[in-house]
Design goal:
The complex is a heterodimer of chains A (280) and B (342). By secondary structure, chain A is of the alpha/beta class. Chain A is 46% helix and 20% strand. In chain B, 23% of the residues lie in helices and 37% in strands. Chain B has 6 helices and 16 strands. Chain B is α+β, with helices and mostly antiparallel strands and 342 residues long. Classes of the chains: A alpha/beta (280), B alpha+beta (342).
Chain lengths: 280, 342
């Protein structure tokens, strides 16, 4: 019996090992993180790996080997054996101290789709910590955002509805048709429970009632020329005197957005990646 | 005893009434119609007997019953025999109108106009929609002072011309400021001012304009079959109202000549009358005064053009029911629309 349990545990560990080819998910070339901090981040990452079946990596470096932040992040993920499942699903946060840039790279169609509209705001949430030199907090924020997003997936379907086809690789066997029917009814339930439709209806009903209540009593249809004797109007004096002028100039802002990305691109390994970056 | 007059049918002696459609006088008993010239031959206005009766003590010359009339009522109907009755001395001397615009809209037309109008007033109390109520519509000749005048007006203000262009990485905006002055002169003809306190001034402005093409020299004949009021606001008081209207007309008129600028704001406007002359006229209106919770509500139709103004009280119960229905429908649309297309 004991052997049996041991066997199962061993098997599980073995399986996990197959899934998680690389167990070092926090790479700090700069030495900004203490050992405890690294361990804490690693532990959180492992929770993400087991609970959400996706990989997470944090890289802090000042040497991107001549590559852009995006290229380095994508390649680092691809060539270091990260990613879970057939499509190597995972997400990587690169803190590029050389260029003081950060880049969040996503891999695997599910992760790319699910995060395509979210990486930008993740960059914006993480970068303030980096600006303040709080690298551990930045890493934790990154991981907490992932946990928050993953936890929301099943309930808040509208945010991810466009990517839902793949979302069900993970749920047991919900057919997509069934899921959509549920969506409408759950949406109705959500709407019924929400105060906004009531508030909206009160405002609209009040406006309509108000408009009908105040409906025109009639209006004045004469103009300033109704009683004028035709041809009797004449201007007897007309002065237009220039007084002064002033000129202002405003610099036209050329677009230099601090965050970029969002689309999908292919890295040197041939895998597809998504992601966003920014400076700090 | 004061004289009360009504024009009688030259054939059957029944009372005559003015018919807005044909512009002639009609007998409702023998259906004879008479032109103004035909009546003038028989009823010469100068033959109206002078009398000095006490107000409110007139008698119907058809049935002899006492005519009950307000102090400003000059044409009315006998309460008993329904004959049109004119109180002649209330059309005389200072109260003699110079002009009249005869009714063009019939009583039936006015009722139709009211029905259409009240149908759109969702929150009007039901009693306002009853036939009994609708029958209360009266054709009334309302007193107006008509002013001919010439006015001078001046305006002063600041105008700007704004231009904008791009050079290199900069956008330049240049604002040129100008001091603008204009003076103008204009003549106005027959600006009407409501001369009766029985009508709401605001509404009387709204039923304007009347088509002065139909303006005729006053004749008592037109009054028969309608109510008529004499003025109780004197010419001097109405002149002030007229001056306010002229101020408004002329300053807007002159302001419209300031063109070619991006903006113009008037800092000073004034006007003065060079001369003004007035004439007293009666203009046709259909009037319905409703009382609801001790407050009077007025409905007025221009008796010549059919233009409608008026107000109805709000029945708060109807309003609440409507609001609740609108609320329910809107809520359903939001919830299901939001769930299906959100």
């Amino acid at each position: 019996m004991r052997k049996g349990i041991l066997g199962i545990v061993l098997l599980m560990i073995l399986q996990l090992h197959v899934l998680y080819a690389n167990t070092q998910n926090v790479i700090d070339d700069m030495g900004y993180l203490s050992e405890d901090e690294q361990a804490s981040l690693q532990a959180t990452i492992e929770t993400i790996q087991t609970q959400y079946l996706m990989d997470a990596v944090i890289v802090i470096t000042d040497d991107t080997q001549g590559k852009s932040s995006m290229e380095f992040a994508d390649d680092f993920f691809d060539y270091n054996g990260y990613g879970i499942g057939e499509e190597y699903d995972g997400i990587l946060l690169l803190v590029n101290m050389g260029a003081r840039e950060l880049w969040i790279s996503t891999t695997g169609s599910h992760t790319i789709n699910q995060y395509s509209h979210l990486t930008n705001s993740m960059v914006n949430s993480v970068s303030p910590y980096l600006s303040d030199g709080e690298y551990y907090e930045a890493g934790m924020e990154f991981l907490n955002l992932i946990i928050g997003i993953e936890n929301e997936v099943p309930t808040s379907s509208q945010n991810y509805s466009s990517q839902d086809d793949n979302a069900y690789d993970y749920s047991d066997d919900t057919s997509s048709v069934q899921y959509r029917e549920e969506t409408v009814s759950t949406r109705v339930e959500d709407m019924v429970a929400s105060p906004w439709p009531y508030l909206g209806a009160i405002i609209i009903a009040s406006v309509i009632t108000g408009v009908i209540t105040g409906a025109s009593k009639g209006s004045v249809t004469i103009t300033n020329r109704t009683y004028e004797k035709p041809g009797s109007f004449s201007l007897t004096r007309q002065t237009d005197r220039f007084i002064r002028e002033n000129t202002t100039r405003v610099k036209i802002e050329t677009k230099s957005s601090s965050s970029s990305g969002g689309g999908t691109h292919t890295g040197s390994s041939g895998r597809s990646h998504g992601g966003s970056g920014g400076s700090f | 005893m004061a004289t009360v007059s009504a024009y009688k049918c030259l054939n059957c002696q029944a009372p005559l009434g003015f018919d807005p459609k044909s512009g002639q006088w009609k007998c409702h008993y023998c259906f004879s119609e008479f032109t103004k010239q035909e009546l003038d031959k028989v009823y010469k206005e100068e033959e109206v007997t002078q009398s000095t009766g006490t107000l409110n003590a007139y008698h119907c010359n058809n049935c002899g019953a006492e005519i009950v009339a307000d102090e400003t009522t000059s044409a009315t109907f006998c309460l008993y025999c329904k004959s049109p009755s004119l109180i002649k001395e209330r059309f005389k001397g200072e109260f003699h109108p110079k002009y009249v615009i005869p009714f063009k809209i019939t009583h039936e037309d006015a009722e139709e106009i009211y029905k259409k109008w009240i149908r759109k007033k969702l929150f009007a109390p039901t009693q306002f929609k009853n036939d009994e109520e609708i029958e209360k519509i009266k054709g009334v000749y309302a007193p107006f002072w008509l002013y001919d005048c010439e006015a001078n007006g001046q305006i002063q203000g600041q105008a700007t011309k704004v231009s904008s262009w791009r050079s290199g990485n900069y956008r330049y905006t240049r604002t040129k400021y100008y001091h603008v002055e204009r003076e103008g002169r204009v003549k106005y003809e027959r600006i009407p001012v409501d001369a009766s306190t029985k009508f709401d001034d605001k509404f009387m402005v709204m039923i304007e304009p009347y088509d002065y093409q139909a303006l005729a020299d006053f004749s008592m004949h037109y009054m028969t079959g309608f109510f008529a009021e004499t003025y109780d606001v004197d010419e001097a008081t109405c002149k002030k109202t007229m001056k306010e209207r002229v101020d408004d007309f002329i300053s807007n008129r002159i302001r419209n000549t300031v063109t070619g600028y991006t903006s113009f704001s008037v800092q000073h406007a004034s006007s003065n009358l060079n001369y003004a002359s007035e004439s007293y006229a009666l203009m046709p209106v259909y009037l319905l005064v409703n009382e609801y919770k001790d407050k009077k509500h007025m409905f007025i139709v221009n008796g010549q053009t059919g233009k409608v103004v008026g107000e109805t009280p709000i029945d708060h119960k109807r309003q609440l029911v409507f609001w609740l229905i609108a609320l329910g429908i809107t809520w359903v649309i939001i919830v299901f629309g939001g769930a299906l297309f959100g």
